[in-house]
Amino acid sequence: MNLKFSVITPSFCQGRFIERTIQSVLSQNLPDGEFEYVVCDAVSDDETIEILKRYSDRINWLSEPDRGQAHAVNKGIELTTGEIIAWINSDDTYYPGAFDAVREIFESDSKVQVVYGDADHIDERDQILEAYPVEKWNYERLIETCFLCQPAVFFRRSLIEKFGGLDDSLKYCMDYELWLRWRNHISFYYLPMKLAGSRLYKDNKTLGQRIAVHYEINKMFCTKLKNVPDKWIFAYAHVKIEETLHLDRTDIKQNIKFIKALISNSLWSFWHWNHSISLNGAIKIICWWIWSRILWLKFIISLVRL
Length: 306
What we know:
By secondary structure, this protein is of the alpha/beta class. The chain folds into two domains: 5-201, Spore Coat Polysaccharide Biosynthesis Protein SpsA, Chain A (Alpha-Beta Complex); 209-305, no CATH class. 46% of the residues lie in helices and 17% in strands. It has twelve helices and nine strands. The chain has helices at residues 18-26, 48-54, 69-78, 98-108, 141-144, 157-163, 174-183, 205-208, 210-224, 230-244, 252-274, 279-305; strands at residues 5-11, 35-41, 60-63, 84-87, 93-94, 114-122, 128-131, 153-156, 189-199. Strands 1, 2, 3, 4, 5, 6, 7, 8 and 9 form a nine-stranded mixed sheet that branches. A hairpin with a 5-residue loop joins strand 6 (114-122) and strand 7 (128-131). Helix 9 packs antiparallel against helix 10, helix 10 crosses helix 11 (252-274) and helix 11 (252-274) packs antiparallel against helix 12 (279-305). The termini are far apart.
C-alpha cells in the first residue's frame, strides 16, 4: 500500500498567492486516499476565504484565530493522519512530480525519516530569481546556515510524535529550529531534484523583516543550544547596519563608518548572547579594526595630495 501524504498550509491574507499554492498541491495527481490537504487560515479578511470555498470539494480548511504560523502548522498536523507530512506556506508552490519522487524514496527505505530536495527562489509572478542555496546533508554545516528550503522538506509523522512539533513561540525560524532539533538524532536524505519554489518579495517575512529574523535566530541558538555560532553573530551585525544606516561603501568615509559600526555591533552581539567572544571572532574583529585604520590613512593621504 502506498504511503499517504498529509499536506498542511498555514494561511493569513495571502489571497493573491494561495490559489497557486493549492493548485500546485492538487496537480501532484495523487489518487484519492493517498493524500489529504488541510489549510489552516487565521481569519483572513482578503479574498482567501472565497478561494478556499471554491476548493471545498477537494481540500479541508478552517478559518479561526491562531497563535501564528507554527501554531497553524501544528494544528494542521493534528488534524491529519498521513504517514508523510508536507508543509507548504500559502505563497510557495510545489513543482510537478515532487510527491512521486519523494514517496519513492520513503517507500524504498523505511529508515529514511526526512527527504529534502532542491528549490528555487521565485518572484510574485512565479519567475525564478535564483536557485535556493541547498546543500548536501552535513550535520555540522546545518549549524552555520539553514541550507534546507522549507517547502522542499518532507518528513515522517513519527518524528513529530517522538520529538514534538514546531515551537510556536517562534515567528520566523520555527522550521530551522525543528531541523536543528532533529539533526541530533537522524540524517536527512538529500534528493538532487527541484521540488518547490520559495517566494521572495519585499513584503514577505524573509526580506521585509531581516533584523527581526536574524535576532530571533540568534535568540533561538542561545536558548536551545546555549551558544550562538560566530556566523550568525556577524550576520545579525551586518543586517542591522545595512537596514538602519544605509551607507554607501564605495565612499571611503562611509565605508570606515560601516566597519566601525560592524565592530561595535558584533561586540555587543557576542556579549548579549554568548557573554564571551570566540578566538576566531576576536581575530576577525581585530582584522576589521586594522583595515579601518588603513582606510583612514588612505583617506588622509588623498586629502594631502589635494
